[in-house]
Inverse folding.
């Protein structure tokens, strides 16, 4: 298992990377310390988490703006002090109806990063620009830049790049989230050549655009990341279909050129990759 982000995502690493979406929330509350431990135990390469800021400027690990779905308390995180957020207990799994209330609490980002240190790479989805500098300062203060991967959307059409998503020396690895423009994706990649990204999260409407960009991606040293989540899958390449036809979903996106897969079915993907010698 790699503990250095740049070595993990490098094309010199031939493995297909398995990304646990909000941890393994099928076995533990999403975005919790237990979900982190489950991701490590089943062999995920990366855990993807979300962070938000409380009213007293504490960074917590939470996807929704409100506690309501995942906790036994209600309220909007940005308007609550951390002490109040901490009183909330997390519901099991994704917090849907019928999930039992656990004894787990909403973790601080610092707590989760410390638990993950040297054990698994943490991909941090920063929800708002206002939180960016605070997240970066925490990462650098903790001396854990080599173990994280930040991400944010960029627009290839307008070349609007959040180059300040990382510190000025680019000590913190950064992954742009890109939408492939049909018919021009390979050419559009030239626009980020100077950016030096090692990995790109890609949304697409035609898999042929991805396949056509293989040579360009190799030349630029870029690994592609795809989400096969049921909630955001492209063209029905989703986890639920992969359970029945893994080759048609995971096999197809790998063949097209993707080298990292974010999934809610971590164990199943790991087993399938092992069976295929990947």
């Amino acid at each position: 298992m790699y503990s250095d982000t740049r070595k993990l995502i490098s094309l010199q690493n031939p493995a297909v990377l398995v990304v646990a979406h909000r941890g393994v929330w099928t076995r533990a509350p999403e975005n919790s310390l237990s979900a982190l431990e489950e991701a490590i135990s089943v062999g995920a390469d990366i855990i993807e988490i979300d962070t938000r800021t409380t009213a007293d400027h504490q960074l917590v690990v939470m996807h929704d703006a409100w506690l309501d779905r995942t906790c036994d308390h209600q309220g909007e995180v940005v308007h609550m002090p951390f002490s109040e957020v901490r009183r909330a207990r997390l519901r099991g799994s994704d917090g849907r109806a019928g999930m039992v209330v656990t004894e787990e609490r909403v973790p601080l980002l610092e707590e989760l990063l410390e638990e993950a240190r040297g054990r698994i790479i943490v991909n941090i989805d920063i929800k708002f620009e206002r939180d960016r500098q605070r997240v970066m300062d925490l990462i650098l203060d903790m001396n854990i830049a080599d173990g994280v991967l930040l991400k944010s959307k960029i627009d290839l059409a307008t070349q609007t790049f959040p180059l300040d998503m990382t510190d000025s020396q680019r000590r913190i690895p950064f992954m742009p989230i890109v939408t492939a423009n049909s018919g021009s994706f390979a050419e559009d990649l030239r626009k980020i050549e100077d950016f030096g990204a090692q990995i790109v999260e890609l949304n697409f409407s035609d898999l042929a655009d991805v396949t056509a960009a293989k040579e360009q991606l190799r030349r630029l040293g870029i690994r592609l990341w795809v989400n096969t989540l049921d909630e955001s899958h492209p063209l029905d390449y989703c986890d639920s279909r992969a359970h029945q036809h893994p080759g048609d979903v995971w096999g197809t996106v790998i063949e097209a050129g993707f080298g990292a897969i974010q999934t809610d079915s971590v164990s199943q993907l790991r087993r399938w990759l092992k069976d295929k010698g990947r």
